[in-house]
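Data card: per-record layout.
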Amino acid sequence: MSNSDNFPKELYYSKEDEWVRLTNDRATIGITFYAQEQLGDIVFVELPEPGTVLSAKETFGVIESVKAVSDLFSPISGEVIEINEALTERPELVNENCYGDGWMLVLRISEEKQHESLLTAAEYCTLIAEREQS
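The structure for this 134-residue chain is written out next.
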């Protein structure tokens, strides 16, 4: 079901189905193609206020679909410097383009090399394949 085309190689992934795009000391975060596919049609996204300081694996918000309500987890630590305001009006952007217009927030990273604990695209694809077999 999940092929590697759905998981850009330049991104990092968490076991909780978030992705991270690193640019200098900034990390853009969203949920993966797999996660949005599992959730179905997204109807609501709740994000933290800019200025919020998050720790890795801490809940940063909630995403609601026609099927379920799920917590969102920060893959890395840092301060929220921007949120995707467009998701308030159009939460379906997460379904339409989870790696583009459907991004959720940008953190100023608090520690370098945090991404080394995250998964590569290949490792994330393996994780999904294992989940689907169990």
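Known properties of this structure: The chain has a mean pLDDT of 94. The longest helix spans residues 121-133.

See the next section for split statistics.
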